[in-house]
Amino acid sequence: MIIAVDGPAASGKGTIARALARHYGLPHLDTGLLYRAVAATVLREGLDPAVEADAVAACGFPDALLDDPSLRTDEVGKAASVVSAHPLVRAALLQRQRRFAQQPGGAVLDGRDIGTVIAPDAQVKLFVKATPTIRAQRRHLELRKQGANVSLDKVLADIRARDERDSQRSTAPMRQAEDAAVLDTSFLSIDAAIQRAVALVEERSHDG
Ligand SMILES: Nc1ncnc2c1ncn2[C@@H]1O[C@H](COP(=O)(O)OP(=O)(O)O)[C@@H](O)[C@H]1O
Ligand SMILES: Nc1ccn([C@@H]2O[C@H](COP(=O)(O)OP(=O)(O)O)[C@@H](O)[C@H]2O)c(=O)n1
Q1: Between residues 133 and 169, which one has the greater pLDDT?
Q2: Annotated binding site for ATP
Q3: Could you give the ipTM of this predicted complex?
Q4: Which of 28, 35, 94, 125 could make a disulfide contact with 84, Cβ separation 3.0–4.6 Å?
């Protein structure tokens, strides 16, 4: 079974995807990390995320970089959103994600375009969302725990800018697949959101 989990920043899609992978004993890929690895490589080399050739040159990053906690910073997230708009960057990362999705036994992937581009035939597609204010509060808390000193207003402005860039780009924009089930986590605890996600997977995987 392939489970595709998409949604905007800090909606809770990673938390849900990890929990589903555990529940069903499936491997999980956080595809945002691939774009973050490209972005971190570009920034480290003093190159410009907005220049497509600079970002493409960074697509050969070593696998070990995916475990680096510095990929989780806000600065890298923002640059990831910039590099991910380049069609050649998306093309360079496509096969790796498709191979992961199509491994025998299935997989859980989370990102922005899993249900629409990477695994359009996935048996189960979830689109996880929450209001921008709630997502900003969650991300703010996370950044504070990392020791970052940033205001809630700034985090909210960044979330809105990222939503805009991710949904307006021409290649593989973030959007809900027509056959995706929406899971709004705004007023759900983490446990309740996971329970709801498992219930949706059960419903959908028995449908067809
Ligand atoms: N339903 C929820 N209620 C409260 N906090 C949540 C919920 N889901 C996730 N979080 C927290 O919000 C932050 C972002 O969640 P995450 O799953 O990483 O989002 P995404 O992968 O969509 O960016 C994390 O700190 C996570 O623990
Ligand atoms: N499948 C994906 C996953 C991430 N991305 C991009 O990568 C950026 C970082 O993704 P992420 O999932 O790590 O970010 P968060 O949602 O955790 O903040 C996003 O803003 C997207 O621009 C993408 O374009 N396609």
Answers
A1: 133
A2: 7-15
A3: 0.97
A4: 35
How many domains, in total, are found in the chain?
Answer: 1
pLDDT tens-digit series, residues 145-155: 888 899 999 99
Angstrom distance (rounded) from CA 13 to CA 6: 7
Indicate whether residue 6 lines ligand 2 (CB < 6 A).
no
Q: Does any ligand 1 atom lie closer than 6 A to the CB of residue 40?
A: no
In a 10 Å sphere around its CB, with 0-12 CB exposed, 13-18 middle and 19+ buried, how is residue 47 labelled?
middle
Q: pTM (2 decimals)?
A: 0.96
CATH of the domain at 74: 3.40.50.300
Lookup result for tokens 């529940």: 23
Confirm if 166 and 173 have CB atoms less than 8 A apart: yes
Cβ neighbours of 5 (radius 10 Å):
33
Range of the domain at 109: 2-207
